Amino acid sequence: MRRQRHERRAALGFLLPNLIGFGVFTAGPVLFSLVISISNWHLHRTVAFQWVALRNFVELLQDRDFWLYSINTAYLMLGIPFAIAGSLLLAIVLSQRLRGIVVYRTLFYLPTFTSGVALMLLWKALYNPEFGALNAVINWWLDSLHLNELVRALGGGGVSAPTWLLSTKNMLGLDVEQIRIIPGQWGLGARDALIIMGIWIAIGGNNMLLYLAGVSNIPPELVEAAQLDGAGRWAIFRNVTWPQLAPTTFFIVVMSFIGGLQGGFEQARVMTLGGPAGTTTTISYYIYTKAFEEFQIGYAAALSWVLFSAIFVITMINWRLGGKELHY
Amino acid sequence: MKSFFAITFCVLVLLSVVAWQIKPDPPPGKIPLVWVSDDNPARRQQIALFNQLHPEYDLRLDPRASTAGIEKVMLQSLAGVGPDLADAFSPSDLDAFVRSGVAWDITEELAERGVDLEGEVWPAILPTGIREDRVYGFPANVAVDAIWINKDLFDAAGEPYPEGPWTWDEFLEVAERLNVRDARGRIKQFGFLCDWWQWPQFIMLFGGHIYSEDGTRCVIDGPEATEAIQFMRDLMYEHHVMPTPVDEATMATQGGWGSGTITYFGAGKGAMALGGRWWLCTLRDYEGLNLGVVEIPHVKEPRYRAYGRATVINRYSPRREEALDFLVYEAGKDYNDLINRQADAVAAVVRYNYTPEFLRNPEHPEEDYNEVWRDVVKYGRSDDWSSFVNGQTAMRILNKQLDLIKSDQKPVPKAMRDAAREVNEEIAKTLEMDPSLRIQYYRLTGRERPE
Question: Which of A28, A309, B100, B145 is the most buried (most CB within 10 A)?
């Protein structure tokens, strides 16, 4: 009994620094932000502090920018399935017994431990419409296939390489100022540029490591049994590998959705400042703008809680839908 | 395991003590002062001169990133860890400092030290330091843009150097003749270089306004402002004398010190460029560059956009009294002469621009155009601003519409109408939020205050 009490006290002693840190730097600010979300707290002293109940939340629902930036956030998440598929493919390739596999694994993981800002500046240069490597390849390809001549011969206006970070165009044709689709906006623009970059960064990142661990944990006897039954590579992947990786995939999907909803801040800050015309402003960047550029702290806190609620609901949906499908 | 944790804990405590001990302290006997401004060689010289003239101080720079606004300074100051001095780069910056309570009202303090802001400083830059007849900052310099000309490119084209005053039509003819294309038909030398963020300059040049005089309404959809932006758009897409956004990206335009359009102009990629005297800080590094300056064409009376920095003292600084010495230094001869020698725009104190050294810097005798800079400052006007809307919010709205014009996606009149409407909606929201502004607004507009 005495020993038990002693152990409990020791455990508490070891946990205490962490608990204090969590309380002061995480739980406290989170609760504080909830409290200020029902206030009009503004950094300008001329705005008298008031409790406004749910007014910030009501205003937010009527804020057109909030909806436009929510769509931007959702649009940037379109890259998630491609990033997950890419990570899985890469993990399967890197799980093979190849010479120098450690070097390959390290190379693919490099973007994850390289500074995000450095990568973004690199991609900004790659997306330069005139001198960027990407458009150099596209232009070479257009020239060598004589695509422009072909389009003009068919009565079209010619094809040109995208202007990437300068363009408001997008693959779905989303309008800039209203929530609608217009044909004039079809094309590749800043949002797509961010998606492509995001996929490139994510493919070799933590998702690949998780899949790699998942693949190496698949019992070899399952694969051998399938081979004895005459299954080919695709059949083995579909009936053995993929079901065995379901818990990993579920975890990755949940985390990617959470990351996607919270994402876009760094890219916007470093590469586009939210432009052109607000097309790369995501909810997280909007929160920053409202709080630290426009000084509406109460409104920004309300925005943060709406974002949290969205993440919570989507994670719950994922959990309900995905959790049932898990096979072990 | 227990001993491992105990040792780790002790090591961390020890390291914390070491870090605390080796924390850089100001030299003994000196009073530390921190100034937030943009980092560049000129700024460091200005600091060195202050430290030399005032050996009791140790002034250091806390560099302000070009993309970051005043938010960092405001938050740090309100949290009690702000700098002693910070630069406001526009009247709306000052407004934010004042309304957040960060800027210290130094009207009496400066008067006691014999500094008469309104009597000594170029009027165009006063709104960056004065709010509602109270002094909060001392202008550190003043910039009014003109058109730089690359004389060698003019000579190569057999074009005489322009002389002011001139019209936009004359300007366009010259700019078109100075465009040079490569074998593929792409423009390799532009007649005119100008950053898109110069749009407020054009509105002013065309006699337009962003806000009504009392700041109660956004009037950017007025005919003059619309004409100005239409003209700017046409320079890119109709006359092809100014780089489009794609060309701009090619030039990697970042704005600010020593980058973008300045370096592009320095490299001879444009025959004319809209810029300030402060460009010389970079252009002096280009050897053999043969430069001239001419005033910008204007539509009605000459009205040029004036901008610059004013240094504000953090009200919460424990060394705010000492920080006043820096403002007195900014008002003095040594600092203002240094500004003029460095060509960090033009000295804010008028009388220091009326010296033989200003007209002919002995170190740079080739700069024979300083009289133009002094002349245009006389016609400088501060940026339009409104105290009824947050400057950053308004810029976010305006820049969104101007982005659409810049990329040729929206007709100018419609974009300007939408911009004005959205800013006016934001003004209404601000009034709802801020009772003191509401009173001021109803007083200015003479409207009845709704119950």
Answer: B145
- Chain segment A300-326, per-residue pLDDT in tens: 999 999 999 999 999 999 888 876 666
Residues of A in contact with B434 (CB under 8 A): 42, 44, 46-47
Instruction: Tell me the domains of chain B and their CATH numbers.
Output: 26-142+308-353 (3.40.190.10), 144-306+383-436 (3.40.190.10)
Q: What digits encode the pLDDT tens for the residues B370-420? A: 999 999 999 999 888 898 998 888 998 999 999 999 988 899 999 999 999
- How many helices and strands (H and E) does chain A possess? 18, 0
Closest residue in A to B391 (Cα) is A294
Do A14 and B5 count as a contact with CB atoms less than 8 A apart?
yes
Q: Is B4 on the interface with A (CB under 8 A)?
A: no
Query: What confidence tens digit (pLDDT) does each residue in B50-102 have?
Result: 999 999 999 999 887 655 668 888 889 988 999 999 999 888 889 889 989 99
CATH superfamily for domain A54-116+191-324: MetI-like (1.10.3720.10)
ipTM score assigned to the predicted complex:
0.79
Three-state secondary structure string covering chain B = CHHHHHHHHHHHHHHHHHHHHCCCCCCCCCEEEEEEECCCHHHHHHHHHHHHHCCCEEEEEEECCCCCCCHHHHHHHHCCCCCCEEEECCHHHHHHHHHCCCECCCHHHHHHCCCCHHHHECHHHHHHCEECCEECEEECCEEECEEEEEHHHHHHCCCCCCCCCCCHHHHHHHHHHHCEECCCCCEEEEEEECCHHHHHHHHHHCCCCCECCCCCCECCCCHHHHHHHHHHHHHHHCCCCCCCHHHHHHCCCCCCCCCCHHHHHHCCCEEEEEECHHHHHHHCCCCCCCEEEECCCCCCCCCEEEECCEEEEECCCCCHHHHHHHHHHHHCHHHHHHHHHHCCCECCEHHHHCCHHHHCCCCCCCCCCHHHHHHHHHCEEECCCCCCCCHHHHHHHHHHHHHHHHCCCCCHHHHHHHHHHHHHHHHHHHHHHCHHHHHHHHHHHCCCCCC
Collect all residues of chain A within an 8 Å Cβ-Cβ radius of residue B396.
278, 289, 293-294
B78 shares contact with chain A (CB less than 8 Å): yes
Domain positions in chain A: 54-116+191-324
